[in-house]
Amino acid sequence: MNTLKKASCGTMESSDAYMELEPIEAGTQIELQSVVEHQFGDSIRALAAEMLKEEGVENVKLSIVDRGALECTLRARLETLIGRAREEAAHA
């Protein structure tokens, strides 16, 4: 795993998502607030967990505020977020 720093990306606009990623002592926590929680909450959490695992990202808290974003948007936001967290750590 690469060293990560706190980072954020996205907006609170309709059909988008705002995300924050920050390192924690142990484990991975995914917090989700979504306008489609009842229909897609489990799928959004599974997508996030899968992408974090694929990227080798551990010991983080991921907060997602979803405003009805499509899966492709969620993937793009999370990819950007991980990149920013790694970039910030590289410049620290």
Question: Can you describe this structure?
Answer:
The chain is of the alpha+beta class and 92 residues long. It has a single domain, classed as Ribosomal Protein S5, domain 2, CATH 3.30.230.10. The chain contains 2 helices and 4 strands. The chain has helices spanning 37-54, 71-91, and strands spanning 7-10, 17-23, 28-34, 60-66. Strands 1-2-4-3 form a 4-stranded mixed beta sheet, covered by helices on one side. Strand 3, helix 1 (37-54) and strand 4 (60-66) form a beta-alpha-beta unit. It is globular. The two termini are 17 Å apart. The relative contact order is 0.30. The mean pLDDT is 95.
Short description:
This protein is of the alpha+beta class and 92 residues long.
What topology does this entry show?
Elements: E1 7-10, E2 17-23, E3 28-34, H1 37-54, E4 60-66, H2 71-91
Parallel strand pairs: 3-4
Antiparallel strand pairs: 1-2, 2-4
Key features of this structure:
alpha+beta, Ribosomal Protein S5, domain 2, four-stranded mixed β-sheet, 92 residues
Task: Report how far apart the termini are.
Answer: 17 Å
What's the mean pLDDT score? 95
CATH topology: Ribosomal Protein S5, domain 2
**Main structural class:** alpha+beta
How much of the polypeptide forms β-strand, as a percent range?
25-35%
Question: What general outline do the C-alpha atoms trace?
Answer: globular
Instruction: Report the CATH C-level class.
Output: Alpha Beta
| Rg (C-alpha, Å) | 12 Å
